[in-house]
Every structure is written in C-alpha cells, then in structure tokens.
Write a structure and sequence with these properties.
alpha/beta; Rossmann fold; 2 domains; eight-stranded mixed beta sheet; five-stranded parallel beta sheet; globular; binds cytidine-5'-monophosphate
Length: 401
C-alpha cells in the first residue's frame, strides 16, 4: 500500500458504544490513516456528527441524498482500503447478512470492494441469540472479518460478551489485517483449547477454569495467516463456532488424545493450549452417587499426557506446549520443553494479574529449544496469539533452512 495513508471508511450504527467512535477516529488518524465516516440514522442519537466531522476533518455522510446531492456509495467503497463498521448493531448485522439496503452505510457495504470488518456491540443475549450468530456466520463465510466483541460490563448492567472492542484494538486489528501476509498458506495448524472434563458419575465431573479463549485467539490468528485450521476444543469451554475452520468438540482427556492423534500426522504446527485434567476417576459410577453421612474419597488415575505422546511421535511437526505455573515458573517450563520434546513452550503465570484463565488478557514468556527466552508485556489474547505464531513461524523458517 506504498506510502499513501491508509484510507478507512468507518461505518457507525446506533449502539451505545458509538460514543467511543470519536476516539476511534482519532486513533486511526494517529496511526496515519485518512478517515471518512458514514452513519446510520439511529447512530445520530448516540454520537454527534459535529464531533465526528471535527476529528475526521471530513463531512459525515448519513443519507444517500444530501441537500440535492447524491452521496456516491460506490465511490466511497472504491476509495476505502477498508470499510469498518464499529459499533455494528444486531440490526445492521442482520441487514448486512440479508443484503438489505435502506441507508447509505448498507449501500456502501453492498458495493464495497475493499476488506470489510465489523466490531459487534450489543447486549449479551442479543449477541448470543441464534439469529445474530447465524447472521455473523453468514457474513464471515462471505469474507467479513469480525473484531470482538469483548467481554465485560455492558450498558444494560449485565456482564458478558457484547462490548465493542477498545478503539486501540480495533485500529491494530484493521491495520494488521490490511498488511497481513499469507505466511501460513497451505499449512495445517491444529490447536487444542479449553478444559477437559472427567466424569465421576452421570452428573458430576472434574475439570478446571479454562474457557478456551487463548486457543480460539490462536486459531483465529492462524486462519488470518491463511492456514487450514483445526480446533480441538473441550465441551466445557465457551461455545465457539467458525465456519472457516474445522472444529472438533471433545470431553475427556482420552477423547482429546484421540482427536489429537488423528490430526497429528498432517499437522505442520500443533499447539496444545488446552488445560487437560491430569487425573480421572478410576471408576465412573453409572448412577448418581448418593450422599451419605460419612466423608467420601474418589480414587483417581493419571490421564494420558497428550503433549508428551505427540512429542514422542514427532517428525516434522512444530510442537508448541503451554505451561501455567504458580511458582518456579521458568524452571518448570524448561523441564517440560525438554521432557515433552517440544519446539517451544508458552509460559503464563497465575502470579501475574490479568494472565491465565477466563481473562481477555495474558502475559506470557516464550522459551524455545534453542535456549531463547522472550518475555512479553500484558496484552489482549489476540495480540498474544500474534506473538506466539510469529515465534513459531521463525522456528519453522529456521528448520527449513
Ligand atoms: O505437564 P503439564 O500439565 O504442566 O504441561 C502442560 C502442557 O501439557 C499443556 O500444553 C497441556 O495442554 C499439556 N497437557 C497434555 N496432557 C495432559 C496434561 C497436560 O497434553 N494430560
């Protein structure tokens, strides 16, 4: 894209998160972009056109016809290097999926030849509704890239998925996807994610707090780099669908082992980010265990170590493990790297605030089998996934040469 400024067409819809869009425009401009803004009629209720016109230094476009002039949506679509709809309301997402064209923003979408990205923002039940999820999947299948939503406190007071991603994250994502290489094209990347669950009886199981967010971020990043992605995800993780990757849902460590073994031979990169239970009940009761007056104990046996099993079968695969430690982190991680025959290990410590289970952020160190040790700042899991795959690619290139 040479030295020209990157041209961003920002579409704003009627969601409370629209109040953040002047900051988003400023963040794009600070990153060296030129920005034009198109808004839906209801976006006007949440953000002032004057603010947007002032920060973007361009007239804000809202109507197909404007004081006798025709706002040419085709030209806007051609002008932009990327069209980003942020916040994208459930209503606009539904209209985009259906091809409805009753405002300028939708006309721009239908005629855009550039990359289209959306940052959904809505209440969590609206976001998780099957209709919204279907619409998002339809758009993804057609090449639209989704950014977020993040999880956290929502305007309704509820807590969950549906917050528009922060402006800085949106800017990073948009610019990166414009400049992204196809560095993993034709590569098979397999990622395990989430917890495993080990049944005690038909009602109870042993598991852990993993949500699968880190593994999902890795899978999405690999997809962006052009890889064929398979995600093996524990049923206890947050529900995740993506029609652009193969997703296999498993429950126990045994099931995860089998799914991993059947995908290993063809894998170029195998990342084991799942939190696998180390022990499973020796006997699974066929009926619900009734409580008694006395205490009870359950006899546990070891689960298979999936990563060590893959390490022993490794040929040309690049094998990446994770280590979550609470003490002596570096020493334990180095031991695992060696013992399990890995190419690299990603260490996150529960001692770091914002790192580990269920958070949207992580703070990692990467150790590799050449003795390199890299320490990173606290970042969103999306950004952490970039660091991990960048290092994996570096090792892959070194192994080829
Ligand atoms: O040995 P430890 O469980 O701490 O190692 C963590 C790494 O090993 C993670 O990558 C995890 O996914 C993997 N693991 C595994 N099978 C197990 C336990 C952990 O593959 N039974």
């Amino acid at each position: 894209m040479s030295s020209q400024p990157t041209r961003i067409l920002l579409g704003i819809t009627g969601s409370i998160a629209a109040y953040k869009t002047p900051e988003l425009v400023r963040a794009f401009i600070k990153a060296g972009c030129e920005v034009k803004v198109v808004i839906t009629p209801s976006a006007n209720d949440f953000v002032s056109e004057l603010s947007l016109a002032t920060v973007s230094k361009n007239e804000v476009l809202g109507n197909i016809h404007n004081e006798g002039q025709w706002n040419n949506h085709v030209e806007l679509g051609m002008w932009a290097h990327a069209f980003i709809v942020a916040p994208a309301s459930a209503n606009t997402i539904a209209k985009m999926a259906q091809g409805i064209c009753d405002n300028l923003l939708l006309a721009c979408f239908l005629s855009a030849r550039c990359k289209v990205m959306i940052a959904p923002a809505m209440d969590l039940d609206m976001y998780h509704h099957a209709a919204t999820q279907n619409n998002l999947n339809t758009l993804r299948q057609r090449g639209v890239i989704t950014i977020g939503p993040a999880s956290g406190e929502l305007a309704s007071g509820l807590i969950g998925d549906g917050r528009m991603e922060e402006p800085s994250t949106i800017v990073n994502e948009v610019l990166r996807s414009l400049h992204v290489s196809n560095s993993l094209k034709n590569k098979q990347v397999v990622i395990t994610a989430g917890p495993t669950r080990e049944a005690i009886d038909p009602v109870r199981f042993i598991s852990n707090h993993s949500t699968g967010k880190m593994g999902v971020a890795l899978a999405e990043e690999a997809l962006q780099r052009g890889a064929n992605v398979k995600l093996i995800i524990g049923k206890g993780a947050l529900g995740y669908t993506n029609p652009n990757m193969e997703i296999s849902c498993v429950d126990t460590a045994e099931e995860m082992l089998n799914a991993s073994l059947s995908s290993f031979e063809k894998a170029d990169i195998f990342i084991m980010s799942a939190a696998v239970a180390d022990y499973t009940p020796e006997h699974v009761a066929t009926q619900k265990i009734k409580k008694k007056e006395d205490d009870m104990s359950i006899s546990l046996k070891r689960t298979p170590d999936i990563l060590a099993t893959l390490g022993s079968k490794k040929k040309n695969q690049l094998l990446v493990g994770f280590a979550l430690e609470t003490n002596n982190e570096l020493e334990y991680a180095k031991n695992k790297l060696e013992k399990k025959n890995l190419d690299m290990i990603v260490l996150n410590s529960l001692q770091d605030a914002g790192a580990g289970f269920a958070t949207d952020t992580n703070k990692i160190s990467i150790l590799d089998n050449e003795g390199n040790e890299l320490h990173f700042e606290l970042k969103t899991k999306k950004m952490v996934a970039i660091d991990i795959l960048n290092h994996a690619e570096k090792i892959m290139i070194k192994n080829i040469n």
